[in-house]
Amino acid sequence: DQIWVEGYKISGLAALTLTIPEERDGGTYADWQTFTLNFPDILMPGDTIELKAPPGFELAYLVPGVQLTFECYGFMWSETQWPDPLPPEVDPATIPEQLLPIHPPERPPLPEPVPPWSGGAAVMEITASPSNLEAAPQWAADGAWVLRMPLNFTDALNYHFQLFLEWLGSNDSNGTSMNLSNFNYTAPSAIELMQTLGLPEWSVNQAAVAQLETQETETQNATVEYLVLRSHCFANDAQDASGELLAGDFNWSKVPETADISINYTLQRSRFFNGVYFDPNATNLSNLSIFGNFSDNMSNMSLNFSGNGSNDSLWEWREELIVCATAFFYASRFDLNQTAAEDFCYLQCTANGTTTTSCMVDCLFSPLERNETRCTSMKVAETPENARGIAAQKLPQPECATEVAAYMQRKKELDAVIEELVALNLTVNSSNISNITNITNITNFTLGPEPDCTCGRPSDLRLAVMWRSPANLTEQVERYRAEFLAAARLLDLDARPLQAPAKCGTADGDVSEMTFHLTEDTMHPDARLVNSSTTFRFKMRYVNPRRPPLDHQNYWVMQHRRVQEDGTDLVLSSDAVRSWQVVSKLRYVVIYRLNEVLRPTDFAEIHFEFVTVNPAEMLSIVGNSPVGWNFRNAYLSSQGTNDPKPPNVGGRRLLWQGFTDNIIVVQAGATTIHEADTVHLSMSLDKVEYVRFRLGGIMIPWTGGQALFSLYTTIKGYPQDEMAFCCQEGEPKHNPAEVFKVPYRMVQLRGLMQNKWHRQAFTYPIASTMETRLDEAGKVYFTFLLETDHVIHRNAREIIVIVRAPEGYIVTQAVGTMDFRDSSEMIPDRTVEGAGERMRSIPIFLKESNSRRLVWKLDPSLKSLSNKYEYQIVCEAVTPQLHSVRAKDDLWVLELTDDYKLSIDEVSLHKGSYNDFTLLSKVNFSVTAQRSPPEVLISMEVIIYELGEETEYPNRVDVYAPSGYKFLLNCFYPGEQERLKGRFVSCRERWTLFNGNYLSGAVLMAADNGIQKQYLPMLVKLVATTPAITPARNDFFIRTQMRTGPAAWGMNSEAFPISPMQVSAAYPGVAGVEVPMFLALQVRYEIPWNGFIHVSAPRTYAIVCGITKVLSAPEGVIIPDCTHDDPILNGCYGLPMVGDPEANPLLPLCHPDHEILLSFPVPVFEEGQDNSSLLDVAMPEKSNILWSINIQVPKYTPNPLSSNVFRVRTLDQNKIPIDGNLWLPGADVTTVPVAGDFEIWWNNAVPSSLMKVAIHFTFNVTTPRAEENPNMRLRVIEIKAPQGLSMKVRRPRDVQRLKRDGAVAVREWNWTDTMPRQLWFGLDIDEEVTGSFHFAFPVLTPSASVGMPYDNLWEVKFCSDAPYCSTQLLKVPIPGFFFGEDPEKELSEEAQAMLTGSGAIRRAAPIPFWQIILWLSAASLLSPSGLAPD
Description:
Blueprint (H helix, E strand, L loop, with lengths): L11 E2 L1 E4 L10 E10 L9 E5 L7 E4 L5 E4 L2 E4 L43 E5 L3 H4 L5 H4 E7 L4 H15 L2 H6 L13 H7 L4 H14 L10 E10 L25 E14 L2 E2 L20 H9 L8 E17 L1 H4 L1 H11 L1 E2 L2 E2 L1 H9 L2 E11 L9 E7 L6 H23 L37 E9 L3 H23 L6 E3 L8 E5 L17 E9 L11 E9 L5 E10 L8 E7 L10 E8 L4 E10 L9 E2 L12 H4 L11 E5 L9 E8 L4 E9 L6 E2 L1 E8 L2 E9 L11 E2 L1 E2 L1 E2 L1 E8 L22 E9 L4 E2 L7 E6 L5 E2 L7 E10 L8 E6 L1 E7 L2 E6 L5 E2 L4 E9 L12 E8 H5 L6 E6 L5 E8 L8 E11 L8 E5 L5 E7 L3 H4 L4 E11 L2 E10 L11 E8 L10 E7 L2 E8 L9 E5 L7 E10 L7 E6 L5 E2 L5 E4 L8 E3 L31 E6 ...
Parallel strand pairs: 1-23, 8-9, 24-34, 36-49, 50-58
Antiparallel strand pairs: 2-3, 3-21, 4-20, 4-22, 5-6, 7-21, 9-10, 10-18, 11-12, 11-13, 13-16, 14-15, 17-18, 19-20, 22-23, 24-25, 25-30, 26-29, 26-32, 27-30, 28-29, 31-35, 32-33, 37-38, 38-47, 39-46, 40-45, 40-48, 41-47, 42-43, 42-47, 44-45, 48-49, 50-51, 51-56, 52-55, 52-57, 53-56, 54-55, 57-58, ...
């Protein structure tokens, strides 16, 4: 059998596409995701499009209210992407019609939305309704303001009366106590009502006139007119179509605001040929030949002018309005133009050379009636149809006019520059502008474009005009608006051909469905543009389901339906597209670190908590960022609790503070390094369960940033909930997590603690190399780089710096001791010795502090720190008093944060830690010596009081002497090793280098148990040789060692100094002359028979062997023998001799006789000769010796200073040093002598007596003052007495001149009790240096117990200044006298006559041919020209 059965209609396959969103988390709000639709059939009005999302998606939300109403989260149609048109070279006829690209046709430009007379802006039509009474339209800026006349004020009056009634019932009315009622209401006038509309005062009168004129007829055919209020610009350069300027030269800025301004216009028509204005009065028409054929005769021209010629297309008429504004006002001549007014009035008021003042005043300041007119050209359409101006008002210039004025001034200046450059025949460019000297305010040669400012030039006039028009402007505005909206709507449909509104939600509450009902007004009118070739695009917002939909339900379904004639709803086409996988997210995630991690090897303990969505049996935690998480040693550090959890975990979850139980660490980090960042935990979790636990043994990354973890829960390996890369601050948006941040570590962090010796390394070269000790103040420096820029939080105001010291430290809490620096600029460092530089300082303020913590805030203007620079933190601190109060492996901690993060206790963005500094204990000791001559072997006593703390037992003690000392190889004093047996086993000398300085050290090795505290204090006697002079830093050091390393050190700066023998060597330093040297010695230690005295002069000197005279010596002391040849003398081995013409200039010269050895052999007595006067020793101790020895002075002063030194040593019979003085600076050498015959005379040489002393010498060569060097003139002669004697001058006459004729030109003499041994004689610098010096003065001798000094020498100094003789030309010693000694020579008769009493004269030295002569006119002392006046 066979039967035909009607089948069902198979719907077409539509095309729905989805954009995979970034927000795929469960319950996440997705913002504006793009979808596309394409249908195989044509869309028609009445059709329905349904879009259904997978279960759980929310496309809408419920609007609160009585009825069930849903609103879409967000929907908008997007522009359709039309296919490109065919290329021009392709013929559309060759392409099948169904394959031709379809797109909307080209549309004309949009018409203007408003009539031209509105100025191109909005048109505001104002009525008298109450809603408009309070608005003040900005007509001058926003466009035209239109009023339809006549106005009906009924509604306005009712509204005004209603306001009065409300005021009566208000508190303001009650407060007046006026007892008013509605009968007290006064209706406003029409003018007052118009002012409430916002009409300016100057236009109200004319508007009222229009109101009265239009309401005269009360029939239905009453006249209707419009008032248009808008602004116009009357530019100064306005011209009509023919090019004629319309504005005059009057400055309209002089027109007052109160001027009465009227408006009138004329319609002007102009004829143009080929775009060029045609002047009918012109006789030469050749200028019209722009283009075209003009072979026609002039008759054609005339015909063309009349509009009837064959070339009529080249002719055109142009119409324009010439609008003129005339201002009527009163103003004086002076107000309008001061200069012109003064010139005019001067001519008017001057007659016969006399100017009348009253005439000038009247002429200048009397107000005159003025009327000024300015015109401009407008297009006819720029004013309303048939309009006439009824009122006008001058407006201020726009705000942008100031920019235009500045531009015009600059243009004027540049024009002047260009004009001057052209005058100089220079090229106009920026390099030549420097040649212009009279233009100083031009910094940029480029002018740039003129600012865009309508009516903004200084000469432009801006007027507000009220036009009155009988045309129906409302209809005109509506027509323009309708044409514009229709064209705009068509263009909008071209871009989005389908614009049906979306309806979200269904009546049964399904918010996963969206419906579109198509209508004619929501579809493009061209059916071709909504057919199967068009792809429609739209965007919408939605919320993902909290749980992933089942796989078979996870589809987006779209259907196109149409109702058939029989009423059935037919699906024409459809499509189902698989949706993205929704991820179920853990909620209320909180992860924070419980302990501070300061070292890379420290373990962290981390707290985890979250709320599940689905049940789970396994949790995996992955440390994503920063790189470097290590869970290999992770363990569960929390202990589970069985206390019940509160209900409603979403709202009250934080009330439960227990920990989830039955958690087991299944695998803590795999063995491979790539899986060390993962830990797996076994647990049994229910859905919506609040989970809390803690893990320890975690190594966090050593790079900073937001900590990100991925948490995954599973059952039997199937995914349940997750939170991947959780979480940046504020994410996820709908349920933000709280995850701690890993601080960025300070890069290349270096620390340094400097005590006072470290900061003065030049002053303390040895102590500056020692370690910092306990209970010691120091300055702490930390220098570092930043891993990333440090930027403060958006809610913060300032950068915070935190410094935390280790246990036991006390930081100084004074701002002056703190500093924060960066390397953006280097400045001189004034805090340390030397010419170093340091980073610049940034202003800081102390925010809070305690003994171990400093919190600074930086300058609030500084909002970030760049990682391009290096930074340094400086503070001061006192080290711990004892090692016992310190924590093992303690750290200095530095933090950079901001005030906001500090207030919420958030971890610092940058953090650094530095191991505590090595601190040693202190050693307390003293060093003494009974005797310490230079370069002799001495014994020193070292008393050790403390060697560090009680718990320290050093096994080695190093004693270091100052530079120049040298311990013996076996440094114990004889017998000392036996005495210290059981404490020290040996003492050996060892050299050690400290900061470039070698020091000799005595290394004391202790017994096996070290130095016990019961042995202290301990005396140790050591032997060493001394240096020549006391070292610049006379510091002894002790360092102790334990088996673990250095333990303690100490410094003694109060040790004994080098005590040299009292020796003086005085002589006149005359170049190349043999002179006597007076050698004075005070022998402290006896010199035995066969002992020696070693005298060494500078190498270029020569000592003449033999004592020439004994001026003072103990009785029985013999004159020693003298030799230049002895092995102990250094000689000149390897050095060139003085006078050698081929001497090596790189080696110092040496005279072989620059040193002598004086010996004291035992005297030999013949048999029977009396030897009772023979002393037991050659020279007893405490002997005072004054000898005279001749020396040969070199030609030049030895250089450097250390080479110009005399050295004297006493030796025993084995030539071992006993005593000495190795630093006796020699005199400066002068080259040319001019004076001599130095003599001294005295009387009454007894102890403690006042006596007279006279000094005499002669300048035997005259020295012209003009030949002296101005900086080394002889101005002062100083007389200095030996030690113990003092000048007793009380008044000027106590000093007596003993020479009348030929005396030195002494002008004055001075003395002072502050320097009692000196007397100064000032010379007249205008007189030549010549003649004799002979003066007597009172002197007080010392007591007998004190006695005369061992170096009993008077000194005569020739100086350029007083009293310190800082520029000494020469110094001459004169041997003094002793108690009971008489002068050897009497005074001259002339001198005796000038001095009361008698006496004798003693010469300076009875040496043959002795003459001490001063040379003051040497070439080195001359002025540069040799003839320079004083």
